[in-house]
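Notes from hallway chat w/ T.B., transcribed later so I don't forget. T.B. wanted the structure written out for a chain they're using in a teaching module, and asked if we could keep both sequence and structure tokens in one place. Agreed to drop them here.
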Amino acid sequence: MSTNRVFCTIIPPHILDTLSRHSDELVSGRARRTRERDSLERTRRRLNTVAGARILARPEAAEDGKPHRTIYDAKKRETLPGTKVRGEGQEPGQDASVNRAYAGLGATFDLFLKVYGRDSIDGSGLPLDATVHYGVEYDNAFWNGEQMVFGDGNGEVFLDFTIPVDVIGHELTHGVTQYTANLEYYGQSGALNESLSDVFGSLIKQHTKGETAAEADWLVGAGLLAPRVTGKALRSMKEPGTAYDDDVLGKDPQPGSMDDYVDTRQDNGGVHINSGIPNRAFYLAATALGGHAWEKAGQVWYDVLTGGDLKADAEFADFARLTLKAAATRFGEGAEAQAVEKAWQEVGVLSREA
């Protein structure tokens, strides 16, 4: 299948734009430099897609159902992948960023394999590569269609991007989407792309911690914001629009229902903003069903993502209807299907008569 290898960053453009307009040159200058690097990487991604992306060969030593992780150190340069510093099975070293990246790749691999029977993000044992210490005070992390890349943050607004395991899971899930539904990265299909990464990033964190839906914080990127920032995380799936409200970072703009849908051409049609709507639908379904969110709600969302019926240009309502069908197919016309339907109704994607 031909894949649309989009360039996806964890920090949305609207946040970097806000920071780039700040009166403090240290804040605005860092944000502008990050935006410039993102634009360069996005251009590289586009050119590589046209030329033909590098094929990641599966190492001969790799086993079915086992991760094959390689961590590289960019040493504050912007050349990828950098110097190899840890391979699969090697013991932790002194660099905490390397160790966290290695563990996060493993946590992502474990959820998809142990819960959904998926061997790596492509389903065929794809090697998982990551680069840490990318650039100087680079304020982002991204999946470029082939590997993960982490900046160190500037310490003033953002900390090291390897800290939240759900950030790692979020970015790698873009790879899963790339190899399955291949959702277009614009408008509602792009917001679904982002939401699916938030959903499975959150499930990876919950799976790692053994949390139930009721115990989870439903925050994406908790621990990433520096102490000076007034906020909890990058996004809240439980209460979109409440993750941060800061004089430097601005206010979280995510809506939690279609009543507040943001019609914009920025950020690829608001992919990081309107993703709050399907995010909240998943939270509502998962908490209504209780227990571990990856077992029922997560299974339904995974079935839709990988089932082959989700079109690349799908809108929220298309995805919602497929989740109803998937819930009924897997669990029958019972509590699961009812919880999923009610969740989409509550966020205004489906009508009460749907």
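Follow-up for T.B.: Strands lie at 8-9, 69-73, 83-87, 128-132, 141-143, 148-150, 219-220, 235-236, 245-246, 250-251. Might be a good example for the class.
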